[in-house]
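Input C-alpha cells:
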C-alpha cells in the first residue's frame, strides 16, 4: 500500500504508522463516498495481507480485535467504524487483504511523551493511573471479562484535553477462553507483562500489573525492567518519594503473585 491509495472508495491512506511482515497500519481520512462515517474524519486503518501471513495467529488476532472494537463502547476506547476485505484495486495489484477501520484518537502516546523528556507531577500521574484503572474496570465488567494483554506507554494515548485512551486491541482475549485454552502465544511487552502472562496464562490481574508498571515508569523515568527490586517486586519507591495512597496502590498491583493483586479496581480509583 502507498500514500494516496483509496480503500473501499472511502478511505484515503495518508501516512503509514507501522509495518510488520504481514500487516500495515495507516492514518487515513474518510471521503464523501464513505457511508460508515462522515467525510473528512481522521481514522486508523489496519491492513492484514493474507498472502504474506506465515500462520493463522495473525488472522486470529485481527479477528479478535475487530470483534472487541465492535463490542466496546467507551470514550477511552477507539470507536469501531468499518471492516472489510480488500482485493487490491490499488497500486499494489490484486493481493487479498483484510481491513479494520477505527477512530483515530487525537494526541500522543505516553511512550512518545517519555521519549520527548516529559515529566509529570505526582497528582498528574495519579489522575492518569485512575483513568487507566477506570478503563480496566469497564473491560472487567463485561461478561466474560476482556483482557487487553499489552498495556504499556505505547498503547496509552494522552489526548489534548488531558484524558487517556487505550488503543491496540490486537492482543485482546476474554478471560474464559484464556482460562480453558493451553497457549504458548505470549502477548505483551517486556517489562510490563507479569510472570503469569509470560508463561502464557494472562488474567484480568495481568492488566493491573502492566498498568502499575507503566505508572512506575512515568514516576521514575525508568523502564520497568530496570527498576530496583524488593524481593521479586519492582520497587519504584526506592527511586522517588511517593504519597502513601499512590505507594499502596502500586505495591498492590506490582506483586509478582497474581493472587495478591486483589485490591478491587473501583476501590483503587477511589484511593487515588
Amino acid at each position: 500500500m502507498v500514500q494516496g491509495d483509496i480503500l473501499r472508495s472511502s478511505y484515503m491512506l495518508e501516512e503509514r504508522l507501522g509495518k510488520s511482515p504481514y500487516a500495515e497500519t495507516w492514518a487515513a481520512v474518510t471521503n464523501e463516498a464513505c457511508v460508515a462515517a462522515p467525510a473528512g474524519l481522521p481514522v486508523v486503518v489496519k491492513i492484514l495481507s493474507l498472502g504474506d501471513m506465515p500462520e493463522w495467529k495473525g488472522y486470529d488476532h485481527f479477528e479478535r480485535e475487530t470483534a472487541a472494537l465492535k463490542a466496546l463502547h467507551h470514550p477511552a476506547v477507539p470507536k469501531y467504524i468499518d471492516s472489510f476485505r480488500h482485493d487490491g484495486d490499488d497500486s499494489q495489484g490484486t493481493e487479498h487483504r483484510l481491513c479494520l477501520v477505527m477512530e483515530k484518537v487525537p494526541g500522543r502516546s505516553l511512550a512518545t511523551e517519555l521519549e520527548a523528556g516529559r515529566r509529570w507531577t505526582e497528582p498528574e500521574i495519579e489522575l492518569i493511573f485512575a483513568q487507566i484503572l477506570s478503563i480496566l474496570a469497564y473491560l472487567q465488567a463485561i461478561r466474560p471479562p476482556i483482557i487487553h494483554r499489552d498495556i504499556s506507554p505505547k498503547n496509552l494515548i494522552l489526548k489534548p484535553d488531558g484524558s487517556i485512551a487505550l488503543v491496540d486491541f490486537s492482543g485482546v482475549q476474554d478471560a474464559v477462553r484464556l482460562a480453558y485454552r493451553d497457549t504458548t502465544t505470549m502477548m505483551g511487552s517486556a517489562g510490563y507483562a507479569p510472570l503469569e502472562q509470560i508463561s502464557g496464562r494472562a488474567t484480568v490481574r495481568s492488566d493491573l500489573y502492566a498498568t502499575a508498571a507503566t505508572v512506575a515508569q512515568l514516576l521514575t523515568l525508568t523502564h520497568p525492567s530496570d527498576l530496583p527490586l524488593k524481593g521479586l517486586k519492582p520497587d519504584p519507591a526506592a527511586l522517588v518519594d511517593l504519597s502513601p495512597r499512590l505507594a499502596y496502590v502500586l505495591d498492590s498491583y506490582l506483586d509478582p503473585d497474581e493472587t495478591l493483586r486483589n485490591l478491587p479496581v473501583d476501590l483503587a480509583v477511589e484511593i487515588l
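The CA atoms of residues 150 and 210 lie 8 Å apart. Helices lie at 57-71, 110-115, 122-141, 175-179, 195-198, 204-220, 244-253, 265-271.
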